[in-house]
Design goal:
Blueprint: H1 7-15, H2 34-46, E1 54-58, H3 64-71, E2 76-81, H4 84-101, H5 106-109, E3 111-115, E4 128-131, H6 142-153, E5 156-159, H7 166-175
Parallel strand pairs: 1-2, 1-4, 2-3, 4-5
Helix pairs in contact: 1-2, 2-3
C-alpha cells in the first residue's frame, strides 16, 4: 500500500500541494512546512502508526498531514475542518495527488472529508491522530480542545506545538492519562 519510499520523496510531493487561498487568522491557519510534516509522518510510519491504519487529521487545513498518511499507506485518512474553503482545497489536493501517483481513484477513495467543528465529532475512533492544531494564540484554549479530542478518539497522537508550551502539555497529558513519548 505504501507509495512513497523515502522521507525526502514524501517531502517533495507534500511541497507541491496547493496552499490556502485566504488564511483565516482567527483560526490560526498557516502552511505546514513540507519538511516538518514529512519528518513527523515518516517517524509515525517507522513506528508502525500509519500503514494500514485509520488516521484522523483534525483541523486538516489544506490536507498535508492526511495526504502524507495516505502516501505512507494509511488504510483511510479522515480530514476534518470547520473551514469549508480549506476542506475544498484538501479535496483538490487529494485528487491531484491521486492523479500524480497514478492510482486511478484508489487513493482518493481512502480519503473521507468531514466539514465540522471538532467538538461535534462524537463516537469516532481512529488508530492515530496526526494534526497541527491551533496554538491557542488567537482563541484561548483552542489547542486544548484539539488535544482533548485527539486523545479521546485515538491512543496514538502526533501533534505540533510551540516549544514553550511543553510544561503545559506535560501537565495536561498527566491529568488526562496520556503520555508524551517523543518531542
Amino acid at each position: 500500500m505504501t507509495r512513497i519510499g523515502s522521507k525526502s520523496k514524501l517531502a517533495i510531493v507534500l511541497s507541491k500541494l496547493k496552499g490556502f487561498e485566504e488564511r483565516n487568522v482567527s483560526k490560526e491557519q498557516y502552511e505546514m512546512d513540507s519538511e516538518a510534516g514529512a519528518s513527523s509522518l515518516w517517524n509515525a510510519y517507522i513506528l508502525g502508526d500509519i500503514e494500514g491504519k485509520v488516521v484522523y487529521d483534525l483541523g486538516c487545513g489544506t490536507g498535508i498531514l492526511g495526504i502524507g498518511a495516505l502516501l505512507l499507506g494509511a488504510k483511510k485518512a479522515v480530514f476534518v475542518d470547520i473551514d469549508k474553503k480549506a476542506l475544498d482545497i484538501a479535496k483538490i489536493n487529494v485528487e491531484n495527488t491521486d492523479y500524480t501517483m497514478g492510482s486511478d481513484g484508489l487513493f482518493a477513495k481512502r480519503a473521507e472529508f468531514v466539514h465540522s467543528d471538532i467538538s461535534k465529532l462524537k463516537g469516532v475512533r481512529a488508530d492515530a491522530v496526526i494534526h497541527n492544531p491551533p496554538f491557542g494564540t488567537k482563541v484561548k484554549n483552542a489547542d486544548r480542545e484539539f488535544i482533548e479530542k485527539a486523545i479521546d478518539i485515538a491512543h496514538i497522537v502526533y501533534s505540533f506545538h510551540k516549544s514553550e508550551t511543553l510544561a503545559f502539555l506535560e501537565r495536561f497529558c498527566a491529568q488526562n492519562g496520556a503520555k508524551i513519548t517523543h518531542i
